[in-house]
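Minutes, project check-in
Item: structure for the 313-residue chain
Input as provided by the requester:
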Amino acid sequence: MKLVIIEPLGVNDEKLLAMAKDMLPSDIEIVYYSTRVTDTETLIERGKDADIIAVSNLPMNADVINGCKNLKMLSVAFTGVDHIAMDACKANGVLVSNCAGYSTVAVADLVFGMVIALYRNMVPCNEVVRKGGTKDGLVGFELEGKKFGVIGTGAIGLRVAAIAQAFGCEVFAYSRTKKEIPGITYVDMDTLLSTCDIVSLHTPLNPQTRGLIGKDQLALMKPSALLINTSRGPVVDSDALAEALNTGKIAGAGIDVFETEPPVSESHPLLTAKNVIATPHVAFATKEALEKRAVIVFDNIAKWAKGEPQNVM
């Protein structure tokens, strides 16, 4: 069998290949591409003879899937698979596995980095101190005692909730599946939005969550509230959020994800909106998380090769 690692996975090339050789059956031939390309023709050329493809967040559209005639298994080095043509995979009998769990710690860390940066005015403080300024107008807020809302209580959402509790926040949650978690109060989404000082999004992107937070939902939020999105860009209506920020309907936002992968257009409305901290889809990207991810990628392949597939989408 032939495995094509179709793009870099964020781990040193030598280390990545050593991990693959250690974890995979010896009869799997490994081909590794250390450059990232996005055009369909090149992706098909790279994967045309592969039985297995390991991919991170390259757009594996239906043409790519259909063009990889030998493909039997796709090991996705990502939690979400909205960039994968799942219908084409199903039609071609291609098993798809993901890497749920690798970025739980990393994403939750960034959520609170954004919250604290916004609450303590860290970006303007950094700017003003370099110009000989003072704290005037930059007095911030504490997390303790704030109402913290988590939309989506999968692994990442629950870790965010636990950290919020450690900061002394009162935690509210909205999710399709309610869980009995001490210290978390499940409410409907409108109640969460109107009650909470901070709202953090942790939902997958699907037809039900696309545009989940729009003008009507933002209108429910407190003028002092923060919105944090480290899930998927299209979960939020960016134009509506920019308007809400610029008109003072909410106080600030931390945005790690957009409608497209970075580089993001300089004309994107959130890049010029008031009190936004924006990062280039980096929440998952820590050294530790990327190594955890590579382990899961190869473990998924090894288990599939044994007839024991795991993390199947």
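Outcome recorded: The longest helix spans residues 287-305.
No further action items on this chain.
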